[in-house]
Design a protein that fits this description.
- This protein has 127 residues and is mainly beta.
- The chain has a six-stranded mixed beta barrel with strand order 2-3-8-4-7-6.
- The protein is globular, with a radius of gyration of 14 Å.
- A hairpin with a 2-residue loop joins strand 2 and strand 3.
- Helix content is 8%, strand content 53%.
Length: 127
């Protein structure tokens, strides 16, 4: 899958599916410095993912500052030819001052055995 560079950072597209409904994320950062995968609540509400009264709010810290998130299991995440079922993500606002709808963290990258080739500007998933 080709990486699109924005702000000198590698971005991809992905699809999330919950309860048979899908939403496409067009601006998702590949971030080896992020332990977890985080997706935008604004997009996920389109497929019925919203905070519930029993959700535990966590604070995560990164280069962009501190963000409040909740954890949710998503039925399916698809990135290029790879799909992962029943995957836990963080859900947050992702208000970082530029167009970003999600972050693919090392949890997803390790699980899928991703190979990031910055020279070729692509990410591959070995069989």
């Amino acid at each position: 899958m080709r990486l699109e560079f924005k702000h000198n950072l590698p971005f991809v597209e992905l699809t999330a599916v919950q309860n048979g409904r899908a939403v496409r994320f067009s601006s998702v950062l590949i971030d080896t410095g992020s332990a977890s995968t985080i997706l935008s609540i604004d997009e996920l509400t389109k497929i019925g993912v919203a905070p519930a009264p029993n959700d535990i709010i966590h604070r995560i810290r990164g280069v962009g500052g501190v963000e409040a998130v909740f954890r949710r299991r998503i039925d399916l995440i698809e990135l290029a030819e790879i799909s992962v079922r029943d995957f836990a993500i963080e859900v947050g606002a992702l208000d970082y001052g530029f167009d970003i709808q999600g972050i693919i963290g090392t949890d997803f990258l390790v699980r899928t055995r991703a190979v990031i080739d910055l020279s070729a500007r692509e990410v591959r998933f070995p069989g």
